[in-house]
TrEMBL record:
InterPro entries per UniProt: AAA+_ATPase, AAA_N_dom, At3g28540-like_C, ATPase_AAA_core, Mitochondrial_chaperone_BCS1, P-loop_NTPase
Keyword S-adenosyl-L-methionine: no
Species name: Hibiscus sabdariffa (roselle)
Cofactor: Mg(2+)
Protein name: AAA+ ATPase domain-containing protein
Length: 506
């Protein structure tokens, strides 16, 4: 008991001494002097430290600091792999989740061999300043710690790099738009010649069925283009690229365009040439497109008479009102007058001076009949890459089987696969045809494969039959046409026979 009393009394006298010292300190060292001392110590510390620090606050005065937002987005791109405690956000109507550093958490980053430390600093705001807009209750910011020797690298390149990266992430996270030119060239309420809708096409290079080597080549080309600003600048070329997609209907030309847009996070401008009246309207449309976009003209062979030939083009595949365009607008204004679009107008659109307004644009033309296009339109520099979208090959079929039936996970009968590999090239089926069969039977994998195999075999048989019948007819025709051949009525008979074959094949 005595011990306890002694303990309490010595504690009380110690506290008394402390209180006395504190009031003495207050008297000798007023707060101003203490603050100065602290500042001095701080300066001394920084003088001998090899690090320097930068504060990037969320709000600079009353304006939002763009750099803060950029750093937040930039860090979100790799923080998910490194951080232990993360903040998660998702904007309204967005499908992307954004990771962020939690309050007062740190993360290291490296750039050009320099290691930097980012700290997310969150402190409560003491009082609301008198501003025209209410400030958040918390004061947020990032503190960047770098080595003094890296200062110039970080300030000159790293921050620009962060701004660029954040732009890219922002574009990726936002929804893409699909534009189409307004009917008859009229302007919308904002005086814009393009109308837009949200573009949510699910096609990606993963889902696209084509040979993986070819696919990779296209992806590399697109990536080189998107990252090639300095290259295009250095070589004095306009920052644009043209792709011509050609091949039979249903081989994935439109799917490829969607995959390109999703891959690069570009908007799409789907140009309906039939709604454009003349070259100057075409130029105006081009000027109103934004950079980082894909400008598409589908079925270019059917859209307008692009051969500049005097004779009117005969369209093999009638595609409705596309085909009579030249007729309906009064063909004959071939030399670039104001009443119709001409080949030279289109060439100017793709690589004339006007095509360089804005930058980072991709032109994609599609056609089912490359042979009907004017060589001027096809030359490299205008259409830099010609991509043949072929009938389904075995590597492409494997992608479809994987997408539609989950083929890789569960595996299919190897004998079936072997047979598919044998007939797929001969069958000449489009990915669209194959997709249809697979969709129909997607719940029954083995039925899907056997039906597909059946369809392919039938096609091969029909092709063989057609080939041999045609050969027979050719021989008969040749016999009839020879000097000792038969009469005209025999020839007519042979034609009739060919028609019969066609009928049978149908
Ligand atoms: N290469 C492919 N990979 C994956 N799916 C494909 C492919 N080709 C076609 N398809 C499927 O077939 C459908 C039609 O294809 P798409 O419209 O892309 O072909 P297209 O070549 O543009 O045809 P068209 O020349 O008639 O416009 C697509 O919705 C897609 O489901």
């Amino acid at each position: 008991m005595n011990m306890m009393t002694e303990y309490w009394s010595s504690l009380a006298s110690l506290l008394g001494v402390l209180a006395f010292c504190q009031s003495l300190l207050q008297l000798v060292f007023p707060p101003e002097l203490r603050f100065l001392c602290l500042r001095f110590l701080n300066r001394l510390f920084h003088l001998f430290s090899s690090y320097c620090y930068f504060d990037i606050t969320e709000i600079d005065g009353v304006c939002t600091n763009e750099l803060y937002n950029a750093v937040q987005l930039y860090l979100s791109s790799f923080v998910s792999n490194n951080g232990n405690r993360l903040s998660l956000t998702r904007a309204l109507n967005s499908t992307a989740t954004t990771f962020g550093l939690s309050n007062n958490d740190c993360i290291f980053d490296t750039f050009g061999g320099a290691t930097v430390l980012w700290e997310h600093v969150v402190i409560q705001r003491q009082s609301q300043a008198l501003t025209w807009r209410p400030l958040p209750e918390e004061k947020r910011g990032f503190t960047l710690r770098i080595k003094k020797k890296d200062k110039s690298l970080i300030l000159h390149s790293y921050l620009d790099y962060i701004m660029e990266k954040s732009d890219e992430i922002r574009r990726k996270n936002r929804d893409r738009l699909l534009y189409t030119n307004t009917r008859g060239g009229s302007l919308d309420s904002r005086g814009h010649p393009w109308e837009s809708v949200l573009f949510k096409h699910p096609s990606t290079f993963d889902t696209l069925a084509m040979h993986p080597v070819k696919k990779q080549e296209i992806m590399d080309d697109l990536r080189d283009f998107a990252d090639g600003q300095s290259f295009y600048h250095k070589t004095g070329r306009a920052w644009k690229r043209g792709y011509l997609l050609y091949g039979p209907p249903g081989t994935g030309k439109s799917s490829m365009i969607a995959a390109m847009a999703n891959y690069l996070s570009y908007d799409i401008y789907d140009l309906e040439l039939t709604e454009v009246h003349n070259n100057s309207e075409l130029r105006n449309l081009l000027m109103k497109t934004s950079s980082k976009s894909i400008i598409v003209i589908e079925d270019i062979d059917c859209s307008v008479n692009l051969t500049n030939r005097k004779k009117k083009k005969k369209n093999k595949y009638n595609k409705g009102d596309y085909c009579d365009l030249e007729t309906s607008r009064g063909a004959g204004d071939e030399d670039g007058g104001n009443s119709t679009i001409t080949l030279s107008g289109l060439l100017n659109f793709t690589d004339g001076l006007w095509s360089c307004c804005g930058s980072e644009r991709i032109f994609v033309f599609t056609t089912n009949h490359i042979e009907e296009l004017d060589p001027a339109l096809l030359r490299r520099g205008r259409m830099d890459m010609h991509i043949y979208m072929s009938y389904c090959s075995y590597p492409a079929l494997q992608i479809l089987l994987k997408n539609y039936l989950g083929y890789e996970e569960t595996g299919l009968d190897s004998a079936d696969l072997k047979q598919l590999a044998e007939v797929v090239d001969k069958a000449e089926m489009t990915p669209a045809d194959i997709s249809e069969i697979l969709i129909k039977n997607r719940r029954h994998k083995h039925k899907a494969v056997s039906e597909l195999l059946e369809a392919m075999k039938t096609r091969v048989e029909r092709k063989l039959k057609r080939g041999s019948l045609r050969q027979e007819t050719e021989e008969e025709k040749r016999a009839l046409e020879s000097p000792e051949g038969g009469s005209e009525s025999d020839f007519e008979q042979s034609c009739k026979k060919e028609e019969e074959i066609e009928e049978k094949m149908k």
